[in-house]
Design brief:
mainly beta; five-stranded antiparallel β-sheet
């Protein structure tokens, strides 16, 4: 498997600890690793709980709702494939049902829309979002859509 799309966009490199995250994403599910010893959620996934040192874990289903905690418009984009899409956003989303978990991604107009599909003026800290998954290079990436209010 390659970790760069034909267009030159970078893809995540799943490892053994994070593989279940990507398997659930392929099913359209946002799941977060949880320690079965103390019940605390953790992200990114790792073999040992940083709180109680247990090696036992499970993957808990999240609602997929959250809010924009932070965002940035990369200037200048470092790779040519991204420069062609500028200005695009990168958001950090705080999960509604797990505020201690924040996931990076892009705010887009639709799951398969380009990275620059949302007007930069529409981004606001605290804006409510919902996860959507887009297949890119064989990996289902979580992307974020503004919730309709």
């Amino acid at each position: 498997m390659t970790f760069v799309t034909e267009e030159g966009l970078l893809l995540p490199v799943p490892d053994g600890d994070g593989a279940p995250f990507w398997e659930y994403a392929a099913r359209g599910e946002l799941r977060v690793q949880a320690c079965t010893g103390c019940g605390r959620l953790r992200f990114p996934p790792r073999p040992c709980c940083p709180h109680c040192q247990s090696f036992d874990s499970e993957w808990r289903l999240m609602s997929g709702r959250g809010r924009i905690w932070s965002y940035v418009f990369p200037h200048p984009p470092l790779l040519p494939a991204y420069a062609a899409r500028a200005p695009y956003n990168v958001v950090l989303v705080e999960l509604a049902d797990a505020p201690e978990i924040r996931l990076a991604g892009n705010l887009v107009a639709a799951p398969d829309a380009p990275l620059d599909s949302v007007d930069p003026a529409r981004l606001r800290i605290g804006a409510k979002v919902q996860v959507a998954f887009a297949e890119l290079g064989g990996i289902h990436l979580p992307r974020w859509l503004l919730e309709r209010t």
